[in-house]
Amino acid sequence: MRVKSDIEIAQETTLKPIQAIALQLGLTDEDWEPYGRTKAKLSTGLLEKLDERPEGKVVLVTSINPTAAGEGKSTVTVGLGQALNKLGEKAIIALREPSLGPVMGLKGGAAGGGYSQVLPMEDINLHFTGDLHAITTANNALSALIDNHIHRGNKLQIDPRRVEWNRVIDMNDRALREVVVGLGGPAKGVPREEAFSITVASEIMAVLCLAKDLKDLKRRLKKIVIGYTYEEKPVTVEDLEVEGALTVLLKEALKPNLVQTTENTPAIIHGGPFANIAHGCNSIIATKTAAKLGDYVVTEAGFGADLGAEKFLNIKSRAGEIQPSAVVIVATIRALKMHGGVGKCELTTENVEAISSGVENLKKHMETIESFGLPYVVAINKFPTDTEREIDFLKEWCSTNNVEVALTDVWKNGGAGGFDLAKKVIQKAEEPATNLKFTYDLHDSLEEKIRKVAQTVYGANDIVLSAKARNQLAFFEKEGWGNLPICMAKTQYALSNDPSQVGRPTNFTIQIRELRASVGAEFIVVLTGDVMTMPGLPQHPAALNMDVTDDGKIVGLF
Fold first, then answer.
1. How many C-beta atoms surround the C-beta of residue 73 within 10 A?
2. CA separation for the pair 494, 458 (Å, rounded)
3. Angstrom distances, CA of residue 411 to CA of 9, 120, 383, 387
4. What value does the mean pLDDT of the chain take?
5. Which domains, ranges and CATH numbers included, belong to the chain?
6. Rounded CA gap, 319 and 499, in Å?
7. What number of H helices and E strands is found in the chain?
8. Catalytic residue numbers?
9. What average pLDDT does this structure show over 284-300?
């Protein structure tokens, strides 16, 4: 029997009018504004209005290191939220917005799958409500204003060789990694080297996701360092006096988006920083609003616990004063086989021995969550090719290691396929709360923060700093930025900075290439290995499968 695609399932689902979802949450007409029949923007004043209301429990969904086999973290997140609602809990899902780069490239979207999706999936995966376009515009407006300032006399004495602010585009485009602007004579501007990043790596994306309100958004925008003078003094957005213009462009994008799932569970989707090159979490405003409106918030952080969960806990939880009550670590039999050395073409063959080896990757992510002092459940995201013997092995391994485990089948069965997981999450969330243990103290030096993440979260022996990175560390400390959290930019495919080292590598060091000061976002980006802020498209991009019929129906979108 042919299995329906995600988009076919989505297009067959009957959605409630968005007004019904807003009423379900107890919202008044002043709390939201319609964006078509199935989407809405929530008011920027809603969170303040709910200030006195107690917050629901936050459940963070993370995973093992991703592989080409897929882990289905977003699918489990949506399925768990639906399961909690079916069990009588008032649950809301909080997710990031997908980037067009991965949607058109290799990774795909971020709307879940099967019967555990957020809808309308075509809109969410494509232009949605225009938030990413607003961030792109604000970012590039700042670039234009920088170049115009230099062209018009350069009162601030910005050194064109030290402009740190990149232009962005929401697409994987390797041809834009290094460019030159201002060519063609005096009327075309001042020539200088430039680079494009993908929109979701923009500091403005991070600023929007970490801002508590409109006032905080403007405060953070003012602090963005765009480059340095000839005397190597930082130049900020405030120096350029353009924070007001940027805030104008971002005013609507700051409002969280309300949608629903395939089972009409409310979902708030807002912001979309990458987790391998940014902090990988949806906005603080979205998560806090969902916590005020529901008894449970099911949210996720991008990629594995070494990236998304680490940054959620060390960066977002600090900035937003968010204390997760429980964590779900998603694993699949297929991915564990790949971490055990099996090739993608051999995944349908039963191989308990490979799982036995690959489970070491899962174990390291469990240890990472334990280091934060948080209770967790392992979710086995079921695939049709999983054999009973393979599933029994993983269950037995978890039992031997005193780990709660739940077999989930939310892709096929929606919320009903996540009942076991939901019950165990409720049990964990009701345990006496313990204070979140951060990986590092903000008073630690930047180098020590990097070392602690590398050793505690990745399992590295130590870090190795390039000469450039060492000089930057000293400079950043001198500028007073040493008390900021760090945002590690690392490959998502491995615990080390070598994507080929699957499983649980040992006796390795983390290579620190360079650092970037995201003073507006209030963290320091640390680039490791060969990770880049502008991905490229694969040999066969997903875009090749997409089309639209004569009556306007999108096909081939997953």
1. 27
2. 9
3. 11, 17, 9, 17
4. 95
5. 6-45+55-126+253-329+403-429 (3.40.50.300), 131-249 (3.30.1510.10), 446-528 (3.10.410.10)
6. 30
7. 21, 25
8. 73, 75, 96, 107, 275, 303, 383, 411
9. 98
Three-state DSSP state, 194? strand
The tokens describing 477, both together, are 């400390």
**For 368-397, what is the mean pLDDT?**
96
pLDDT grade for 116, boundaries at 50, 70 and 90? very high
The two beta strands, 523-528 and 509-518, are antiparallel
Q: What is the predicted pLDDT for the residue at 399?
A: 95
Structure tokens at 191: 């020539």
C-alpha distances out from residue 43 to 38, 114, 248, 529, Å: 16, 31, 16, 41
Please state the φ and ψ torsions of residue 542, each to the nearest 5 degrees: -60, -25
User: Distance between CA 456 and CA 514 in Å, rounded?
Assistant: 21
Q: Are 94 and 77 in contact (CB under 8 A)?
A: no
> Does residue 516 sit in helix, strand or coil?
strand
User: Which pTM does this prediction carry?
Assistant: 0.96
State the Cα–Cα distance between residues 200 and 280, nearest whole angstrom: 9
Pairing outcome for strands 257-261 and 266-269? antiparallel
481-516: pLDDT as tens digits: 999 999 999 999 999 999 999 999 999 999 999 999
Q: What angle do CA 140, 144, 148 make, to 5 degrees?
A: 170
- pLDDT, mean of residues 154-183: 97
Give the model's pLDDT for residue 435.
Answer: 87
Please answer whether residues 483 and 442 qualify as being in contact, where contact means their C-beta atoms are separated by less than 8 angstroms: yes
Start-to-end C-alpha separation, the chain? 18
- Interval 299-311: pLDDT, tens: 999 899 999 999 9
Token pair recorded at residue 496: 């080390």
CA–CA separation, 213 and 191 (whole Å): 38
Q: Residue 138 has which token pair?
A: 């604000």
In this prediction, residue 69 carries a pLDDT of: 75
Strand partners, 41: 33, 257
Per DSSP, 293 falls in state H
Phi, psi of 513 (to 5 degrees): -85, -50
